[in-house]
Design goal:
Layout: H1 25-28, E1 52-54, E2 57-58, H2 69-76, E3 80-85, E4 90-92, H3 96-99, E5 114-116, H4 120-129, H5 133-136, E6 139-143, H6 153-163, E7 170-175, H7 195-207, E8 210-214, H8 231-240, E9 245-248, H9 263-271, E10 279-282, H10 286-292, H11 296-308, E11 313-314, E12 319-320, H12 325-328, H13 330-334, H14 336-339, H15 344-376
Parallel strand pairs: 1-3, 2-12, 3-6, 6-7, 7-8, 8-9, 9-10, 10-11
Antiparallel strand pairs: 4-5
Helix pairs in contact: 6-7
């Protein structure tokens, strides 16, 4: 990044290269509170002509550096209508005792701990507030700077909403079980059965915030005969919170968490469950895309599921502070074999319509809740 793009000194783009051998989906199935302002009316770059909305975008990385939001708007250009906007809730510690002068920029660069970094929400809010009204309308900022093992996490979300009214539409991406990350986080390990998680989801439902959650469906390198370690607990969580709008990031896949056997059947079991009508799936990240396009049959089976449930899937890049347009559009372009197999209706919904429906509602809900709190003087 060019100098002078304060507050971020340089752009660090985290590589999302494929490191594991792909298994074909055909086998496994795939500040002081400001006066409350009305939410900007949703707009896009060029109504009806842009290619997608981005349901999963990180403005900053694991050392809280990133790309200036104005530069990112330029990268979006006319190809992207709207985008989420959030940082990463974890800060990678730079321990000189461990890595010396080699400053880590990613959680795999060092054995030092990660810790929750709440200031990320203020950073995102101020970046958003630096935009014009028309520019703001193209973004949906998300709250991420909370510790999901802390019973006070819900209070952090409340405090951020009231400190920055008119800004946030949801919470996340936040992680519960995440390969190699969970064990590095200082303090308690996050759990799907933690009352703190239930409390924060209850509050998100009260406000009507969109929830974007990362939860690997399994542990790294499981035995093939074992069922997915976290699937039952995750389904139980979804059923306990039917009043939330929940997006399951990466359909449960991770960098080394490969799709479990009959992965698409697993997704369909949730899609068919009437109690889980509020659950959506994002297919963000090139680590997910590589499985979807691993063979013509894998792509076709994935397309068949999306065509059957067109209202339940969203596209996101999961890009982190992209250095340029080529790196930003990489994941979208990877999915071209999938786009070509979708019906016109399903294609429009996964790329645009579902995002706008879900996040428009989250934006309206948050503004209504904030207005009610302001009226009460809270």
């Amino acid at each position: 990044m060019a100098s002078g793009l304060s507050p971020w000194r340089r752009c660090v783009s985290i590589p999302f290269g494929s490191r594991m051998c792909a298994l074909a989906f055909v086998v496994i199935g795939f500040s002081a509170a400001a006066p409350l302002r009305a939410a900007p009316a949703p707009t896009s770059a060029a109504p009806g002509r842009y290619e997608f909305d981005d349901s999963h975008f990180h403005l900053t990385n694991y050392i809280q550096e990133g790309i200036d939001v104005h530069k990112f708007l330029g990268i979006m250009g006319k190809r992207v209508g709207r985008s989420t906007l959030f940082g990463i809730p974890l800060q990678q510690q730079w321990s000189h005792r461990i890595s010396g002068d080699n400053a880590p920029t990613y959680y795999l660069d060092t054995d030092a701990r990660l810790y929750y970094y709440s200031f990320t929400d203020a950073t995102i809010a101020m970046a958003y507030k630096s935009l014009t009204k028309a520019e703001q309308a193209r973004f949906d900022p998300m709250i991420t700077g909370f510790n999901p093992t802390d019973m006070y996490a819900a209070d952090h979300i409340r405090r951020v909403l009231l400190t920055f009214p008119g800004v946030f539409s949801g919470i996340g991406e936040f992680s519960i079980h995440k390969e190699f990350v969970s064990s590095k986080v200082a303090g308690d390990v996050a759990s799907l059965t933690d009352p703190a998680l239930d409390r924060l989801l209850d509050f998100a439902a009260e406000v009507g915030l969109v929830v974007l959650i990362h939860n690997d469906v399994d542990r790294p390198f499981p035995r093939r005969s074992d069922p997915p370690m976290f699937l039952t607990q995750f389904k139980d969580l979804l059923r306990r919170h039917p009043n939330n709008s929940i997006i399951w990031a990466h359909v449960g896949v991770g960098r080394v968490i490969q799709p479990v056997g009959h992965h698409l059947d697993m997704l369909e079991s949730i899609l068919e469950d009437p109690i889980c009508h509020h659950v959506y799936f994002d297919i963000s990240w090139d680590e997910v895309a590589k499985y979807v396009i691993s063979s013509p049959e894998a792509t076709r089976r994935t397309a068949d599921l999306i065509n059957k449930y067109p209202d339940r899937f969203l596209f996101g890049t999961d890009n982190v502070a992209p250095a340029d347009s080529a790196s930003y559009f990489k994941v979208y372009d990877m999915y071209q074999p999938l786009w070509s197999l979708l019906t016109k209706d399903a294609s429009e919904k996964i790329r645009k319509g579902n995002y706008e429906r879900i996040f428009d509602e989250g934006r309206r809900n948050a503004r209504a809740w904030e207005a009610k709190q302001m009226k009460r003087g809270k």
